[in-house]
Amino acid sequence: MGGRGRRHEQLVRQQVLDLINDATAQGASLKLASKTLGLAARTVQRWREQNGGEDGRQGPLSPPANKLSPEERQQVLSVANSPTYRDLSPKQIVPRLADEGCYLASESTFYRILREENQLAHRQRSRPATHRRPKEKTATGPCQVWSWDITYLRSTIRGKFFYLYTILDVWSRKIVAAKVFPAECARHSAELFVEAFQEYDVDPKALTLHSDNGSPMKGSTMLATLQRLGVVPSFSRPGVSNDNPYSEALFRTMKYRPEYPSRPFDTDQEAQQWVDVFVHWYNTEHLHSEIRFVTPDDRHHGRDIDKLKNRKSVYEQARKKKPERWANQVRNWTPIEIVRLNPERIRASEEAPSSKAA
Question: Is the predicted pLDDT of residue 5 greater than 90, yes or no?
Answer without folding.
Answer: no
